[in-house]
Amino acid sequence: MCASDPSPATMSSAGMWVSTSLQPSQILAGAALVTHVMLGRLSAWYENDEELRNLVTELHLMLVDHLLRELATSTSVALNGQPWPLETFRSALLNIVLAFETGRLELISKARLLHGILVTLFRDNGLFSAEAIECQQDTHYPGTFTPWVHFGFQRWVRIVTAAFKVDVHLALLTGHPPLIQREELDLPLVSTYALWNAYGLDLFPTRFRTQPDERAGYHMCDLLTFGRNSQVQPRGDSIVLLKDVEVGLLGVVHNTWQHARWSRKWVDASASACDAEHQKPLHQLLGFWKERLNNVRGAEGALLEEYVRAYAGEEEEDKAEDRHAILDRLRAYVLHAVLLYHFVTVHSYADVETLRQVLMADAAAEECPRGRDREAQMRQWANSPDGRRAVLHALYILKAYRDDAQLAALRNLEVDPIAHLALTAAALVTWMWMMAGAQACTYAQNIAGLDLGQYAPESPQIADWVQSSGVAWATTIKTDWCGLAEPSNKRSVNGQKSNQSRTTT
Q: Does Ion transport show up as a keyword for this record (predicted)?
């Protein structure tokens, strides 16, 4: 957003003016504009101004009702060759995001309905196909001027990419499968951050010429088959931008949902060769993207310079004084990708939705057979190799966020949905692991055992501990363990209050 975005105070005044000076029909006539103004400073929601929040909620509900009616007339049959309603689609997507940011159930229920309709319309109109987008551009926005053609096409690619991200975020939040199928995303990869932010005709040609050529031959669906298809592999490190890593990791979430469903079905069966075979493609994909992420993190020399060019914004990548800001941006994207990788990996080993149900269940619910079975299942899981693997990645989430806490604040990662979801899942997994261990509250330095924070994830010590268990702790990860051990004053998995503060299973 531009520097002249309204402040929360200005928004409050503007919101009051809109709600008192205009009739609903007048507000809804400019739904897209009002949505952009309202969400241009989404951080205003975190200002703890109840009056402002009520105004935003009122406007949001009006917009959602309007958008539901508008989307009903946006099917391919209803449009009958007319241009796709870009602003309606964008407004719907922004309102879905806002509803989940509020955390209010009455808003979320409508947002989920809006989300389902939006995905259906994207599919119906052909937004998942590069060929359909090209036809839309040639028919309604013809031209040969390169910036016009590029940005016209990329705006559709980016809104579909954003919808895919929101779809997977909601799946991770709700425990439901994603609605968008990975294989149907037959779209080119999004352009680099630098090219999308190449404001000024003098800047565009330079950045356009320095785009990584290797990426031009790949589509989003290719990113989601890397690691599974030996015939589809990137030809060089430069193809893999952090946006590609993010899309690839989000594409794995459907696999994690399938595995969680499979695990629940066979909860009474012991680990078998079938279980290992079921997990194999999932961890193959995760391993593939972990390797690509590590390539970005370890980039140096010419490859690092290529990333600097790819992540320049308003800065000039050739100026030494601008380089620090570009590298900070790159580090922030790396942190986001690291959190996402460990978060998705936690889901590959843990049924996070069932963990949440165990945590949130009240005493009465836990007396029923289903509640007791669920607790027993999670207790058994926490003491299994998969439980210990999940705990390792939960600790890596906490460590990654702690190590870059200052950067996270600088780049607004404190309101990043993936950061929120990853930290929540990490707390859930660590809490269950400690509860299932049934150990007394004690200090880590007084315990003889393995310090998980002192060894690399692939080290023999970690591998031995995962397979054979034993006493362990993490002194390098400073966390309120007592707070994790007793969240929200809930009972432990054995029905008793716990005083634990250290992981010792």
A: no
List Cα–Cα distances, 358 to 228, 351, 365, 443, 486, in angstroms.
34, 11, 10, 27, 13
Among 298, 198, 285, 194, residue whose Cα is nearest residue 247: 285
Kindly state whether residue 193 falls inside one of the protein's structural domains.
no
Count of CA atoms in the C-beta half-sphere (13 A) of 429 = 31
In 3D, which of 86, 12, 83 has the Cα closest to residue 50?
12
Residue ranges in the chain modelled with pLDDT below 50: 1-29, 227, 229-232, 235-237, 268-269, 438-444, 480-483, 485-505
CA–centroid distance for 375 within its chain? 28
Q: How far apart are CA 429 and CA 230, in angstroms?
A: 34
| Interacting residues of 315 by C-beta distance below 8 A, sequence separation 6+ | 322, 323, 325, 326
Q: Return the DSSP state at 448.
A: -
- Report yes or no: 250 and 214 within 8 Å, Cβ to Cβ: no
3-class SS letters over 152-210: HHHHHHHHHHHHHHHHHHHHHHHCCCCCCCHHHCECECCCCHHHHCCCCCCCHHHHHHC
Residue 43 inside a domain? The answer is no
Q: Which pLDDT score, from 0 to 100, does residue 44 have?
A: 63
pLDDT of residue 104: 87
Which DSSP state fits 451? Answer: E
Using only C-alpha atoms, what is the Rg of the chain? 24
pTM to 2 decimals?
0.83
Q: Into how many domains does the chain fold? A: 1
The reported pLDDT for the residue numbered 113 is 95
Task: Examine residue 470 and state whether it is found in any structural domain, yes or no.
Answer: yes
Report CA-CA distances (Å) from 77 to 90, 91, 92, 125: 20, 21, 20, 9
Cβ atoms within 10 Å of 267's Cβ, excluding its own: 16
Tokens of 289: 């993207």
Residue with tokens 């809490």: 431
C-beta of residue 435 within 8 angstroms of C-beta of residue 500: yes
Pick the closest to residue 168 from 348, 340, 13 (CA basis).
340
Please check whether residue 435 lies inside any domain of the structure: yes
Domain assignment of residue 416, given as a range:
350-505
